Amino acid sequence: MREIVLDTETTGLDPSSGHRVVEIGAVEISNLIPTGRYFHSYVDPERDMPEEAFRVHGLSREFLAQHKVFKEIAGAFLDFIEDAPLVIHNAEFDTRFLNAEFALMNLPPLGGARIVDTLAMARRRHPGGPNSLDALCQRYAIDLSRRDKHGALLDANLLAEVY
Fold first, then answer.
1. Which of 72, 81, 83, 145 has the fewest CB atoms lying closer than 10 Å?
2. Which residues contact 68 (CB under 8 A, 6 or more apart)?
3. Collapsing DSSP states into helix, strand and coil, what is residue 147?
4. SS3 label, residue 53
5. What's residue 70's pLDDT?
6. What is the dihedral of CA 97, 101, 107, 108, to 10 degrees?
7. pLDDT, tens digit, for every residue of 56-104?
8. How many CB atoms are located within 10 Å of the residue 87 CB?
9. How confident is the model at residue 66, as a pLDDT?
10. Rounded mean pLDDT of 96-113?
11. Rounded to whole angstroms, how far apart are CA atoms 135 and 95?
């Protein structure tokens, strides 16, 4: 079965406060095995980068200004994911941001049964324990040495290993 493991990076925590997507990483898996196909794009958020967000992912306003805006990459992203289930850690966060971007373009939201939230799965499997992506990687002995900051494609690849 084809699934897409997905992650985003953003300018903040709430799209209703004007925060935007700055990076999308999506990894195709088939029967839980990465196929080698992926989608990756940095996105110009057309706004400043708060220091707190910069500390998380290291993406500066100057760097992102050299990239396309969301509406210019949305078609390629939607073509890549097609109608596949989307595997996302803390899916509510990422889908809220993606759907806010789609709403600006009058496109339908992602959602429903196609979303697989690995945070919810981890909480059921390990109640009361730490269930961040870092914690799950450590729990399942997945190498985190290449990760010093969050990155959408790197985190999607790590989540594919966890999943």
1. 145
2. 41, 43, 44
3. coil
4. helix
5. 99
6. 10
7. 999 999 999 999 999 999 999 999 999 999 999 999 999 999 999 999 9
8. 26
9. 98
10. 96
11. 22
Look at 113 and 20; give whichever has higher pLDDT.
20
126 noted as active-site residue: no
Find the angle CA(11)-CA(36)-CA(111) to the nearest 5 degrees. 50
Identify the active-site residue in 19, 57, 89, 150: 150
Burial 139-155 (b: 16+ CB within 10 A, else e): eeeeeeeeeeebbbbbb
Owner of token pair 């992506």: 133
* CB 61 within 8 Å of CB 48: yes
| Region class of 111: left (phi > 0), else alpha (psi between -120 and 50), else beta | left
CA distance 46 to 65: 7
pLDDT value at position 129?
93
Of 16, 153, 157, 27, whose CA–CA distance to 96 is shortest? Answer: 16
User: CA–CA separation, 57 vs 120, rounded Å?
Assistant: 24
